[in-house]
Amino acid sequence: MSTDERTALAPPTEKGRAMRARIVDAAAELIFERGIAEVSLGDIQEKSGASKSQLYHYFADKNDLLRAVIERQERDVLGRHRVVFQSLGDWDDLQRWRDAIVAFQASRGCRGGCPLGSLASGLAEFDDGARDQLSDAFESWVGLIAEGVARMVERGDIRADVDAEALAIGVLASLQGGLLMAETARSTRPLEIALDAALAHLKSFAT
Amino acid sequence: MSTDERTALAPPTEKGRAMRARIVDAAAELIFERGIAEVSLGDIQEKSGASKSQLYHYFADKNDLLRAVIERQERDVLGRHRVVFQSLGDWDDLQRWRDAIVAFQASRGCRGGCPLGSLASGLAEFDDGARDQLSDAFESWVGLIAEGVARMVERGDIRADVDAEALAIGVLASLQGGLLMAETARSTRPLEIALDAALAHLKSFAT
DNA sequence: CCTATAATGGACCTGTCGGTCCACTTTAGA
DNA sequence: TCTAAAGTGGACCGACAGGTCCATTATAGG
Prior knowledge:
The structure is a homodimer. By secondary structure, chain A is an all-alpha fold. In chain A, about 70% of the residues lie in helices and about 0% in strands. The first copy, chain A, has helices at about 15-35, 40-50, 50-60, 60-85, 90-105, 115-125, 130-155, 165-185, 190-205.
């Protein structure tokens, strides 16, 4: 599969934008808790209260809606992590970041992995456009983490000769793998261990 | 969803076992290259040369077949990694393990992630039985890696006070995350970096 | 050799999926 | 105030999914 047509991003009226958002939100939530394969347009209709014609009024087809869902999850996830990494102060901040993620997964009973990670796994071999989108999302995420690392370098917490981007990629990979294993085992333990290992690796570059 | 009935594992005749294996192989391959959602029984029929009645002769339903696929992939993947970790000699062996994984993904053009990882991501919120199965598979995998670490401890390469299982979990998480990111980006770079970070973390416990 | 069981082919059924269509109502703004 | 565009409801459709059924052919073992 490759890219299909795309509908205009923003409906002209307030009402339209609200409806469109409700649809995307409903789809995102359903997909997060069931996986892409188990969500039909009918389910999305029911949850959002939209009618069939509304779905096709705001989106060209199911893939177009899917892309909107990716966009939304990217905004959501990156937004939450941005506030951490753009003001990364010290090692304690990083530890708090780790703890917050673990606590969040625990609060969900370890149901569902990473909103972006599971989309990536489910769409990578199905829709090249979606894969590109998700690849960009991961890249931005890495950039965010790398910014935090760079800030710690500036502050003198981390050695100046490190490759901040590579470190960031390592951290994100540990997070993704940890989330997948935690979801599968329904236990936060693998996630905790994976994140601890990632942070320990970071700390090995402490000044 | 929860567990359904299961067919007897081994057909009585040689012919039957062969046909059953062909079906599972075809299903495994299709699912690996397209994802679970994009594979229908019809596709599996076509690829394996089996008829509808054969599918339902050897498997209770689609989920039963899916479970057989998981079993097969577990045997396959763990088998390949077992030969490495059950004879883990030194750091060079680990490096060769890393290189082999990277080379394998590269040879596939980074299409498809981990056969077990993508099944886990796609089935965790859909079939509890499958999730348990995959959770066990990950656990065995961790056990394998931990064995290797333990062997290096015995040889005196790694400090004796480490938690081998925790280290193994960290390594597997990095592998899973790295594979997912590599699949999404269609580049082995994230995988290389993730594995290098994991091995560096291991080496930080070198004697 | 004979018979019970395994293996096979494929027509067929039913539900559901993504997607189309058209008639109707609401709303913005000239 | 009038009208064009936006928004909405829902009947409808063809394709295809998973799954059932039954008739037929191979085959193993007494």
